[in-house]
Target: SCO3374 family protein
Amino acid sequence: MSPAIPLPRKPAAAPGDPVQQWYENELGWATAAGPPAQLVAGLRFDVLEVPADAGFAVLRRLGTTAATGPVALDGNTVRFLVAAGSADELPGLLEWLEWGGLARDLRAVGAGGLMPAPLPPGRPGPREAAVWLRPPGPGREVEPTLPTLSALTGLGKSAGAPDLVRLVDTAATQCHRLRLLRASAQPLAFS
Model:
C-alpha cells in the first residue's frame, strides 16, 4: 500500500506583507504577490472600473453602501466589487441598456484578473496606495453584499440585494457625462 500524499496547500501570505495576510486570513480572499498585493478577481467577486470622477458621481447618485457593495479608490480609478461572473455579463448588459458603444470608460475585470489590494480599513500606508471608500464588512461572506443580475429576479438573493443593472446604468451614464464635459472643455479644431 502506498503512503497517502497530502493535497497541496495554498501558500501562506508572505511573512512581511500584512495587507496580503489580512485579505487571506480575515476575509478569506485569494491574493497574488505584489508589490502592491493584488486581489484575484473572478473567484468571490468581479470588479467594475470607472474613472474616479464618474465613480464619485455614481456614489453620490446611488447613496447607501447597500446599493453598491464594497468600493475602492486607486489613483484615478474607482473600483466597484460586483458578483463573480458579472464581468462576462457586462457587454450584453451594456447593449441591453443601449450603452454598447458609448461606455468605453467602463470596464470589468473578471476571472483571472487582478486589482491592487486596498489598504485594510484603519491601516496607514503609502499615499499612493489603493484605499477603501466603502470597505467590505467584517467576516468572510462578501457575496450577499455584491450587486448582481439575480437581484432583479430574486434568484438566490435576498430582497435587499444590490442591483447590477442599476449600478451599470448609473456608471455608464456618469462615464458618458464625464466624456461630454471633457469634450466640451476642449477648444474647437476649426476655431
